[in-house]
Amino acid sequence: MVTIFDVAKEAGVSKSTVSRVINNDGRVKDKTRAAVEAAIEKLNYSPSFMAQAIRTRKTHTIALMVPEYSNIFYTEMFRGVEDVALKHGYMVLVCNTERHAMSEIEYAQELLKRNIDGIVYNTYRRDDAMAEYLHRVEKKVPVVYMNKAKPGDEDVPHVYTDGLPSTKNAVDYLYKKGHRKIGYVLNSKDISIIEDRFHGYLEGLAACGLEKNEAWIYRVRREYEPDYVRLGCDAARYFLSLKERPDAILTAIDMIGIGCVKEFHAAGVDIPGEISVIGFDNVFLSELTDPPLTTIGQPIRAMGQAAAEILISMLEGRECERTVVFEGNLIVRGTT
Fold first, then answer.
1. Average pLDDT over the chain, rounded to an integer
2. Mean pLDDT of all residues in 241-263
3. Most buried in the list 62, 83, 158, 318, measured by CB within 10 Å?
4. Is the pTM value of this prediction over 0.85?
5. Do 196 and 129 meet the contact criterion of CB atoms below 8 Å apart?
6. Do 232 and 255 touch, CB atoms closer than 8 A?
7. Is the dihedral of CA 3, 58, 83, 18 positive or negative?
8. Torsion angle of C-alpha atoms 116, 121, 127, 132, degrees rounded to 10
9. Domains of the chain
10. Alpha-carbon distance 1 to 230, whole Å?
11. Rounded to whole angstroms, how far apart are CA atoms 267 and 155?
């Protein structure tokens, strides 16, 4: 195995000079740097990140904390984070916190023990215990939040899609298609961006002169999480049980919408003839339903890329925009 000593001997410099070249130290002369880089290429030398970590306490590893592996939304998010991380020489650990605050805290503690360089916190739920702990973590490593900032935390780095205006526009779209009985399916109250989407629905109703009907608003039961398709099936069965059903529904996330379409189809309900369905996210499965799901798309992979860019810029001392807000866009398919 080629070592740093072999590179130093080949280039005719000291080991510390080779180290400075590897770490992009600006004090190295151009001629010396060229000689070291030529030696590295000739010998096909790969620096040991473990050895660098012992010296610098940096591991070139960042963590992506997610609430569950099973949600394909986070698969797409990971791809975006990894796109940027690999480009800058970082590896990404994915940590499944299973929607439990103590699990998240324990995970973060273990990451710090392993000298993780930074965290993309992508679990949405910000209970007091975790929020307080993360503020302490931020003093040791940078954290980028994949959620809307809480009041007082506006200066904290965060990336998210503002679902309120796009959901409001989706209601307007349904209204112009002739729908007057528009319902909504939402999930956890403690996820602020989900609540923003719901408020977009309410504002959309008001803007169209429609009254809110509580019977057409369904909040899923959390016992089955993270089986969102099953939760969507439950929601569809609820609407089917009503004497007066909505003629269109929006769902907080695609996977719930997919469950609704599946159950309506099984019950012989014509989509979109009897009821239209709109999801939110534009995960790849939304194109595979029968009929394909109309959805409000958010750029999931681009969100992951933006979060990684912010995190790595902070790690490397570069100035960057620390708040990135995307907009959703309506993607019309067969369910409307």
1. 88
2. 96
3. 62
4. no
5. no
6. yes
7. negative
8. 40
9. 4-47 (1.10.260.40), 60-160+300-326 (3.40.50.2300), 162-298 (3.40.50.2300)
10. 53
11. 49
